Amino acid sequence: MKILLRFDDITPYMDQDKWARAHGIVQKYDIKPILGVVPDCRDENLNMVCPADGLDGNNEADLTAKFFADMRELEAEGYTIAQHGTTHIYETDSSGLLHINSFSEFAGLEYDVQLDKLKRGRDILVNHGLNPVLFMAPGHTFDLNTLRALKELGFNAVTDALTAFPYVREGILHIPCRLAGYDRIKGIDTICLHPNMMEEEDFAELENFISSHREEFISYDYDSQIKLAHDYSVADRITEARTILARNARNKIANSKRIAWYMSYTNAESTAKKWAKRLICMPLLLTNKYRDTTNE
Ligand SMILES: [Zn+2]
Q1: Residue 287 pLDDT > 70, yes or no?
Q2: How far is the CA of 89 from the centre of ligand 1 (A)?
Q3: What's the whole-model pTM score?
């Protein structure tokens, strides 16, 4: 098992304190993650620092300049700067090639439109002295036109695939990011974290996990990861479809009040006891004869 780590939604207006916490943890364990930088962030949901709030005495230009200086320094230290979209505004309801979400900044748009948009974003990063060759699609949504445009612009990889090992599609390396959280699964996977959204327990969970799995962490490295890759095949298509079906089923279960009630009602300290309770109480799940305590 090899694990990469990616931090999404890295912008000048991200939550600086939370980013500092997350960064501190990877520094402590000498891990060089992938940073998904939004070149021209227009997504208000990602603005955790309000420009009108005085920015701790900085003006907007200073804050942006400082941010990109920090990113250059981290890139020089071995962190991978990925282009995380261009504006991070979802323009279509396409679910792209992976069907993880049905919104996209790129998928569904004409090739030329995608090429222009991607180029504008890449140029912003390049003009700030960064060298993005890895692409991180907002919402994990991209289509074949996105891949072709990325290839045209000199990108060599995307940090998304729902398979156990990397594959190459349209000349672009796809590094698995199976959205399995901290579950250990075979092959290669990327843990995807959003520092803006992290709470106290998330930082603790990250540090706990890293401290016990440090030797499994690797950084993005095209030359070594392309050696593990194969050409995209029908088998990959089936694996990805199965992964999405399982994920949707898990989400449905997580969102179902009846199942939530059943899972808590049948919880027990020992695994054997828990499963025995679950079997015995199974009929309750199939009928409406249960007490919905979730509304109380
Ligand atoms: Zn994002």
Answers
A1: no
A2: 9
A3: 0.84
For residue 84, the CA-to-ligand 1 centroid distance in Å is 7
| CA distances from residue 119 to 13, 60, 62, 125 in whole angstroms, order as listed | 22, 24, 25, 10
Whole-number Å distance, alpha carbon 259 to ligand 1 midpoint, is 30
Structure tokens at 152: 């045209």
The answer to whether 104 and 94 are in contact (CB under 8 A) is yes
pLDDT, tens digit (0-9, with 9 covering 90-100), for 193-215: 999 999 999 999 999 999 999 99
Q: Residue 269 CB: number of other CB atoms within 10 A?
A: 7
Domains by residue range for the chain, with CATH = 2-252 (3.20.20.370), 256-286 (no CATH)
Instruction: Give the distance (Å) from ligand 1 centre to CA of residue 88.
Output: 7
Q: Are 80 and 4 in contact (CB under 8 A)?
A: no
How many A from CA of 264 to the centre of ligand 1? 33
